[in-house]
Structures are given as structure tokens and as C-alpha cells.
């Protein structure tokens, strides 16, 4: 196996965790490089379902290191809950490590996230209310706390003397939310230090250096997806980190030269949770059908996911900016009973009939865009037991080959069901 990044290529929930879990079999070190517990990752292993938010999906194997990298933001109580859940399942957590450079989500971050969402009116993003945006905001404003800060009382005290006056002023004057005393925050930080103590990895430099020297296989696990990337997604309707392939270098401690491959995970259709433009959205019975067959409800918030046909315009863009070297196409089995399947290959601007083949990054105009579809014949048979590419029905292979043509990127993995073994490795 080469060192590989798994990236969501749409708006999240593409089945990244299934692909990460699968590739993790052959990896030594799995690094989650961005996001926080906004992520909801499902792995079905031997008929059993596991849900992860922060913990890398490789944790189900023994003898692997699962590292939560510097690019992530961690809500301590949620992390604890996830750990407790895995312990109840007797999952071995001895390989779990957390970077001291990862950011801590403090209670004010979730409070600000909740407040902002409730008062934003038209500007509502539909966040997961897990404090993601406010935590990254403070990181960039250089008034955030990192996991490592929790272990040095004097440094923490000095930092809080700088951070708290700014934060309390914001909380009171901008948000009309409660303020925090230093004692209260020190107490909280003591509690957080205990939560992370078994996992915080102060010798992460040695760990990464040794892995590199010993040519260990590294798998970088992304959360969310390219279209939710803060730089390249449908801004401002995005998350606050960089899920793109390049984010793996920034959020892990390895340079770009350690990355050999970037696998973009995409569903055979598109879903989105929360607000924001979605040109191929199906607000009709076909959308409902996809949602019901594909069980498209959020892992983290339980919200119904918006569903639509495959959008080759955004996906071609995702191949470019996400740095994808190949695609893992998931949930193609959801179309097993469809007579016909549509692919959006261009957008038309209803104001002037202008055709877009390239993704227009000015999200403001998306409300004027309608999809230009091409229709493919369905295969109308059950493919969930197929394990070889050649055994897929002819129309199914045609569909996959048409996608490769439109995206100018090869499909390397086809997923025909949620379980580990419901996977076809092409070539
Ligand atoms: P992630 O956030 O990208 O890891 O994806 P989620 O876990 O949020 O959502 C993907 C859902 O699809 C999960 O319930 C998976 O078990 C399921 N899934 C993954 N691959 C397939 C597939 O090929 N077919 C079907 N039917 N379900 C799949
Ligand atoms: P995984 O890793 C789908 C969406 C939210 C919202 C926007 C911003 O499971 O694919 P945030 O809480 O991050 O500030 O919310 O991003 N969002 C996701 N949508 N899957 C996810 O993660 C998501 N994480 C965030 O719905 O629209
Ligand atoms: Mg998800």
C-alpha cells in the first residue's frame, strides 16, 4: 500500500469511514487531519455497526496507531463519550494518540455556535452546533487553547490572562452570553487534562520520524468533503477546515511528499446536510426514494439529508482542487431498482442560457443554475453480492465508465453495500 489520503469528494457522508476502515487493514498509522465531532463516520464490520466522530476509523484493528492530528478540534466531553462507547465494545484503544497541538473546543465555542445559528436568519449555515467554527476562529485569532496547554499550569494561567478578557468581552457584548471566571476555566481544564492524559502524545515528532524511517504505511483520514472546504467549498455554506487532500499535510505533521495517493470518496448520487446551494437537489419523490433506500439521515444530528443526482460538475472540480488521484464510488447499489439514472454534466444559467462546464465558484449565482442531465439506463438487479468488476451488470459498468470519462479520473474502488466485504477493487 502507498501512503494515501481518503477525502470526501462531495458535501460529506460519502462513505469515507467505510473506505478508511477498509484501507486501514494495510496501514500502520492512521491520521485524522481536520474537523472535529461535526463528523459522523459509520463502519460496518462483520455485520456490526460502529459510529465515530473524532476517533480514526482504523481503531477497529489492533496494532495500529490512530493519531488525531494537529489540524483537528476536539470537544473533550464528546471525545470522552466516544472513548466510553468503544470501551464498552471492548475495542483496544492502546494505539490511540492525540496531538498536543490539536485545538480544544471550550464551552463558549459551542454556545457561540448555537447562538449564531439561532440568530443568523438568512445567513444560517445549518451547522452541527459542535462549536467547530468558533474553535477554528479562535485558533486563527491566536486566542485558542491546544491540548498541550492543559498540562502546564503556569503557562495555562498566563494564557488565560490574555484569552479570557477578550473572550468575556465578546461573550458579553456581542453575544449576550454568560462569561467565565479564571478559576472556573482552570477547573474545567483540569478535568480536560484527565480526559486526554492516556492519549496525549508529546513524543509525536519521534513517532512520525520513526514511521517515516521505517517506511510505515500511512493513511490520512479526512472528514467532511471538498464542497464543504473553507477555501474551495460553497462558501460561506461550508465547515471551517480544509478537507481537501492538501489539508492532510497541514493537519498531520507530514509534508506533501509523504502523500502518494489521494482517494476521493463519492456517492453514486449527492447528499448535503444543512443550508447552501445544491444544483442537482431533488425536492420530489425521487429524492425521497434515494433518501429512504440510502438511509440518508445524519449520524451526528439525525437530520434528513438533502438528496440529488450525481453532479459531475462539482465532482470534476473536486478532482482538481481535492488533488484526487482516483475515486472510490459508494452506494451504487442504491440504484439497483432504478430504470434510469441521471448525471448532471453541465449547469445552465436560467437568466441568459449560459452553459457552465466548469464549476462556478460564485455561489451567489447558484440559485439561477439548473442541471443539464444525461440519462443512463439502469441495471435493475441486485449488485450487493458482486465482488468482481467484470461481474457487474453491463449498464452498471457503463454508468461507472461514463463517470470516469466525465471526471477524467479513474474509479479505483466500487462499493456495493455498507459492509467491509461489499467492495470491488478495480484493477
Ligand atoms: P462518512 O461520513 O463519509 O464516513 O459517511 P457516513 O457514515 O456519514 O454515511 C455513509 C453511510 O452509507 C453509512 O451508513 C454507511 O454504512 C453507508 N454505506 C457506505 N458505503 C455504502 C455502500 O456502498 N452501499 C450502501 N448501501 N451503504 C453504504
Ligand atoms: P462527515 O465527516 C456532512 C456540514 C453541516 C453544515 C456545515 C458546517 O460525516 O462527512 P459545522 O458544524 O462543521 O460548522 O457545519 O457543514 N457538515 C457536514 N455535513 N457530513 C459531515 O461530516 C459534516 N460536518 C459538517 O451540516 O452544513
Ligand atoms: Mg458522515
Largest sheet: 9 strands, mixed
Structural class: alpha/beta
Write the CATH architecture name of the largest domain: 3-Layer(aba) Sandwich
Please provide the count of β strands.
19
Portion in strands: 15-25%
CATH topology of the largest domain: Adenylosuccinate Synthetase, Chain A, domain 1
Which sequence of SSEs, written as H and E, runs from N to C?
A: EHEEEEEHEEHHHHHEHEEHEEHEEEEHEE
| Ions and ligands | guanosine-5'-diphosphate, 6-O-phosphoryl inosine monophosphate, magnesium ion
- CATH homology group of the largest domain: Adenylosuccinate Synthetase, subunit A, domain 1
* CATH C-level label of the largest domain: Alpha Beta
Question: Mean pLDDT, as a whole number?
Answer: 96
The low-confidence parts are none
Distance between the termini: 14 Å
Amino acid at each position: 500500500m502507498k501512503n494515501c489520503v481518503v477525502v470526501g469528494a462531495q458535501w460529506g457522508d460519502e462513505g469515507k469511514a467505510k473506505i478508511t476502515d477498509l484501507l486501514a487493514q494495510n496501514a500502520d498509522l492512521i491520521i485524522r487531519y481536520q474537523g472535529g465531532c461535526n463528523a459522523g463516520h459509520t463502519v460496518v464490520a462483520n455485520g456490526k455497526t460502529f459510529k465515530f466522530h473524532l476517533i480514526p476509523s482504523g481503531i477497529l484493528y489492533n496494532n495500529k496507531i490512530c493519531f488525531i492530528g494537529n489540524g483537528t478540534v476536539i470537544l473533550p466531553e464528546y471525545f470522552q463519550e466516544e472513548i466510553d462507547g468503544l470501551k464498552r465494545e471492548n475495542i483496544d484503544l492502546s494505539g490511540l494518540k492525540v496531538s498536543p497541538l490539536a485545538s480544544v473546543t471550550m464551552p463558549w465555542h459551542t454556545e457561540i455556535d448555537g447562538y449564531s445559528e439561532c440568530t443568523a436568519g438568512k445567513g444560517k449555515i445549518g451547522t452541527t452546533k459542535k462549536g467547530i467554527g468558533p474553535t477554528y476562529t479562535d485558533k486563527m485569532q491566536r486566542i485558542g487553547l491546544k491540548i498541550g496547554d492543559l498540562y502546564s499550569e503556569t503557562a495555562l494561567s498566563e494564557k488565560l490572562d490574555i484569552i479570557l478578557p477578550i473572550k468575556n468581552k465578546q461573550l458579553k457584548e456581542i453575544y449576550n452570553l454568560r462569561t467565565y471566571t479564571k478559576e472556573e476555566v482552570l477547573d474545567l481544564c483540569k478535568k480536560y487534562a484527565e480526559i486526554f492524559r492516556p492519549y496525549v502524545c508529546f513524543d509525536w515528532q519521534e513517532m512520525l520520524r520513526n514511521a517515516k524511517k521505517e517506511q510505515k504505511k500511512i493513511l490520512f483520514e479526512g472528514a467532511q468533503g471538498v464542497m464543504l472546504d473553507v477555501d474551495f467549498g460553497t462558501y460561506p455554506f461550508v465547515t471551517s477546515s480544509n478537507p481537501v487532500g492538501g489539508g492532510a499535510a497541514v493537519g498531520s505533521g507530514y509534508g506533501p511528499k509523504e502523500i502518494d495517493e489521494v482517494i476521493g470518496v463519492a456517492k453514486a448520487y449527492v447528499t448535503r446536510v444543512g443550508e447552501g446551494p445544491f444544483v442537482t437537489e431533488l425536492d420530489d419523490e425521487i429524492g425521497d426514494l434515494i433518501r429512504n433506500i440510502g438511509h440518508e439521515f445524519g449520524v451526528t444530528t439525525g437530520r434528513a439529508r438533502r438528496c440529488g443526482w450525481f453532479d459531475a460538475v462539482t465532482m470534476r472540480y473536486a478532482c482538481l482542487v481535492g488533488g484526487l488521484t482516483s475515486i472510490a464510488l459508494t452506494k451504487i447499489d442504491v440504484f439497483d431498482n432504478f430504470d434510469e439514472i441521471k448525471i448532471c454534466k453541465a449547469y445552465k444559467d436560467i437568466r441568459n442560457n449560459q452553459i457552465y462546464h466548469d464549476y462556478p465558484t460564485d455561489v451567489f449565482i447558484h440559485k439561477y443554475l439548473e442541471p443539464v442531465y444525461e440519462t443512463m439506463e439502469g441495471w435493475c438487479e441486485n449488485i450487493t453480492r458482486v465482488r468482481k468488476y467484470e461481474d457487474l451488470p453491463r449498464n452498471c459498468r457503463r454508468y461507472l465508465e461514463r463517470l470516469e470519462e466525465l471526471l477524467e479520473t479513474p474509479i479505483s474502488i466500487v462499493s456495493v453495500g455498507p459492509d467491509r466485504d461489499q467492495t470491488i477493487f478495480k484493477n
